[in-house]
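Backbone geometry tokens:
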Amino acid sequence: EANIVISLEFLMQQAGYRVDIARTGHEALEKLASFQPDLVLLDVMLPGISGFDLCQRIRQTAAWASMKIVMLTAKGRDVEITKGLALGANAYITKPFSTKALLAEVQKQLRAVETTQECTGEMNSRY
């Protein structure tokens, strides 16, 4: 939904994040090939390649394995949430959502990325 995309873009930019938008699953794959973000906000109902399929492809691609995935979608049945998490999503947020809760989840996921990078750097410097 265009209005949600615009709102999320503004919200994330105001929070200091670099934002790149893909409007279809195919466009997302193309962008991920050249730009590897630390985190992806992913809608299940993307045109072309579904968010579920895209999540699975991200997890199956070694170069993207550490990328955090937050599914943000209207698909909120237990079976859909379970599927998204089983396919590798780090978090699953249903619409309507609180922007404060979304920002808190994004920050939580990115802190995990920073911690992993710090630990890896420490290990690499020791050996």
Q: What stands out?
A: The chain has five helices and three strands. The chain has one domain: 2-126. The chain has a mean pLDDT of 89. The beta strands are 39-42, 68-73, 91-94.
